[in-house]
């Protein structure tokens, strides 16, 4: 296993620390392209001219089980960490001066890295698994599309679904937090956070809710709604693979997107994108979070993002990638 020794106060006033796997030295790696670096286990750097990383080891916020915000990586022994301060017992490093953006991440060593948006708001370390912002991307897709992922991975407001396989790989590290950022057509923002977010064979599980958008994933406040619309324990359904509990039809076909449907839903952030809030029709098939605006209001913006629970949030709220424009 790759192991990094704790920085314990080194480079607290500098932006980067260079960490090498012992007993390797920079001479073993050849020309790294990092100016000012030198052989040794640690080298402090002031805003280096960074080379383009091959990929980000593991996920946003972790390095092989070591919980560290980590930007820039190399296949071999060299890693580059933005450093701010040591927290707790030194199990991870909280970062400042890090930027949200797209990075290649690799949650599992036996699979290829893939592109994802790392969101450094609210304490950092968030991997964005879903984003809706403009209606340009079609979310009414089949099982294989949701399995592998789809969408644009360029701009900070591009729409995409990361892919159920990738999401599952990210969640195999253990308990994770799910944060959902929402915005309506008046520009008001709300959020929901769920602890212990898990996918078991694409089946949805989650724990305690907090936030100001309401607990729509639990189906609402009364028992009847929860019986028919709670998403806890539901399998993922698409128009060509029906795993919901709706005996009279397929919830994904009616509601225009893959989701963890019950009979059918109290939340569906993969539904049809209406270019207005209130809508009407034969089905409540909009981009819905019922505990905020009800079933017949389609939201303008949503982002679903996950991270390991070893971070302390600053103020809850939308990050720089949550503009909804």
TrEMBL record:
InterPro entries found in the cross-reference section: FIB_ANG-like (IPR037579), Fibrinogen-like_C (IPR036056), Fibrinogen_a/b/g_C_1 (IPR014716), Fibrinogen_a/b/g_C_dom (IPR002181), Fibrinogen_CS (IPR020837)
Molecular function terms from GO: extracellular matrix structural constituent; protein-macromolecule adaptor activity
Database matches in SMART domains: FBG (SM00186)
Domain of life: Eukaryota
Gene Ontology biological-process annotations: blood coagulation, common pathway; fibrinolysis; platelet aggregation; positive regulation of heterotypic cell-cell adhesion
UniProt GO cellular component terms: fibrinogen complex
Intracellular or extracellular location(s): Secreted
Record Pfam families: Fibrinogen_C
UniProt cross-references to NCBIfam families, sorted A to Z: GGGWT_bact
Listed name of the protein: Fibrinogen C-terminal domain-containing protein
Organism: Malurus cyaneus samueli
């Amino acid at each position: 296993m790759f192991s990094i020794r704790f920085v314990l106060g080194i480079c607290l006033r500098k932006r980067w620390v260079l960490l090498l796997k012992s007993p390797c030295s920079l001479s073993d790696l050849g020309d790294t392209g990092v100016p000012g670096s030198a052989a040794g286990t640690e080298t402090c750097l002031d805003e280096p001219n960074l080379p383009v990383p091959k990929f980000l080891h593991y996920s946003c916020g972790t390095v092989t089980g070591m919980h560290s915000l980590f930007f820039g990586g190399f296949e071999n022994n060299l890693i580059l960490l933005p450093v701010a301060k040591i927290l707790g017992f030194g199990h991870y490093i909280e970062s400042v001066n890090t930027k949200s953006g797209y990075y290649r991440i690799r949650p599992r060593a036996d699979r290829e890295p893939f592109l994802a948006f790392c969101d450094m708001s609210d304490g950092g370390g968030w991997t964005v698994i879903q984003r809706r912002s403009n209606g340009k991307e079609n979310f009414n897709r089949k099982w294989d599309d949701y399995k592998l992922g789809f969408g644009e991975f360029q701009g900070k407001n591009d729409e995409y679904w990361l892919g159920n396989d990738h999401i599952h790989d990210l969640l195999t590290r253990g308990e994770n937090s799910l944060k959902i950022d929402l915005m309506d057509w008046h520009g008001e923002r709300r959020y929901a956070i769920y602890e212990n977010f898990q996918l078991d064979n694409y089946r949805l599980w989650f724990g305690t809710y907090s936030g100001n958008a309401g607990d729509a994933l639990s189906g609402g406040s009364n028992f009847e709604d929860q019986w028919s619309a709670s998403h806890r324990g539901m399998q993922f359904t698409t128009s060509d693979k029906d795993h919901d509990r709706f005996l009279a039809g397929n919830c994904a076909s009616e509601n225009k997107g893959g989701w963890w449907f019950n009979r059918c839903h109290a939340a569906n952030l993969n539904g049809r994108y209406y270019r207005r809030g209130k809508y009407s029709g034969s089905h409540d098939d909009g981009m819905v979070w019922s505990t905020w605006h009800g079933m017949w209001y389609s939201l303008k913006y949503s982002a679903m993002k996950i991270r390991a629970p070893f971070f302390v949030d600053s103020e809850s709220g939308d990050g720089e990638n949550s503009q909804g424009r």
